[in-house]
Specification:
alpha/beta, Structural Genomics Hypothetical 15.5 Kd Protein In mrcA-pckA Intergenic Region, Chain A, Rossmann fold, 3-stranded antiparallel beta sheet, 7 helices, 12 strands
Length: 241
């Protein structure tokens, strides 16, 4: 009897959920009989040899996303002190630590979401139930040379001022651009922006807005290596002040 690959990963206890399995498959991190498979729905016999590549080591799919951006832009984060805005489970934080970050400060509006392994990590300082609107340089008593950001249900435009003032003069940012929170509601199909033209226009509009508003020296974009949970094609913005 054959099963979908995402179902197979769960039944073999290789993943705790189908959504996690789908993320790994779409990121190209799953091998079936030593061949890469990128379709969660592809069918395989139950005795198929399944392997998960080492990059699946992060506490959440956010780590896969950020790793893809670090690799694409050839960014070295070693020994840096980083602010993670919208840390959630801590995928970005986990990725930063595994890439050699010295210290990661985390904020998130949620409560008790950060993975327990990160809550107890000596190189992590975190604030929960903390909205980005409250963010000030005084929050942690320092400004940051590096900031990473992954927020939902709010436009980047509405909160960037709070984040930028916590950035050093020669600072850099990696910001996850989520089109569903940046376009008009009429362009959302149950939370998914399907039209690639609308998506690209929104991305270009964001780059123009940030450049004109904050006069950044450089903004580069790249598609995220995996799609969002609902299928949105997200992008990373690499911003240099």
């Amino acid at each position: 009897m054959k099963k979908r690959l995402d179902h197979l990963l769960v039944s073999l206890a290789l993943c705790e959920s189908r959504s996690k399995a789908q993320s790994l498959i779409e990121a190209g991190l799953v091998l079936a009989n030593k061949k890469q498979v990128k379709k969660p729905s592809q069918l395989f016999p139950e005795n198929t040899k399944i392997e998960i590549l080492p990059s699946a080591r992060f506490v959440s799919r956010g780590g896969i996303k950020l790793q893809g951006a670090l690799d694409h832009f050839s960014i070295d984060i070693k020994n840096q002190t980083v602010l993670d805005v919208g840390a959630s489970t801590g995928g970005f934080t986990d990725c930063l630590l595994q890439n050699g970050a010295h210290l990661v400060y985390c904020i998130d509006v949620g409560k008790n979401q950060l993975h327990k392994s990160l809550q107890q990590h000596p190189q992590v300082i975190w604030k929960e139930s903390f909205h980005v609107d409250e963010l000030r340089p005084e929050t942690f008593g320092i400004k940051f040379r590096w900031i990473v950001m992954d927020l939902s249900f709010i436009s980047i435009k509405k909160i960037m001022h709070n984040v930028v003032r916590c950035l050093e003069n020669d600072g850099q940012m990696l910001v996850l651009f989520k089109p569903q929170f940046e376009v008009e509601r009429k362009h959302n199909d149950r939370g998914v922006v399907k039209d690639p033209v609308i998506r690209q226009n929104a991305l270009e509009d964001m780059v123009t807005y940030l450049q004109e508003t904050y006069n950044f020296s450089s903004i580069k974009s790249a598609p995220c290596v995996i799609k969002g949970p609902q299928g949105n094609q997200e992008s990373f913005l690499w911003i240099q002040t």
